[in-house]
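lol ok so funny story. i was supposed to be doing the assay writeup but got distracted and ended up predicting the structure for this chain instead. priorities right. anyway since i did it might as well share w the group, maybe its usefull for someone
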Amino acid sequence: MTMFDEIDPRSPTPLYEQIAARIRVAVAAGDLAAGEALPSVRKLARELRVNPATVVQAYRDLAADGFVEMRHGQGTFIQEVSPFLRDEERATRAQELVRKLLIDAARLGIGADEIARAFHAEIGVEIHE
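and the output, tada:
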């Protein structure tokens, strides 16, 4: 399983945004360390079966946000990210997970109360009504 397994070409979110988001999450989680090289544009495009321009756009967005440094002729490397950005990225990822859970639950006809009870039961917190 790779960090890009959740890339979904059918998603309304553009592919370059999905790629950049997965890299941000990997950095926030500590799965990618400062100085680590990302796959080359061609290699990642081939692996994901996307146009190389899609990967370039993802890498450019990450560079603009300070997550990576693009070194001409050498590749793209993870930058040192402040703890604040890592915390912010974790919070963003948590929101994405909750949003996905709510969408999936709604499709199954599961209401917010049921989700809250299940969540609290899973983490061992009792709800008093």
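The helical segments are 15-28, 41-48, 52-64, 83-107, 112-123. DSSP finds five helices and two strands in the chain.
back to the writeup now i swear
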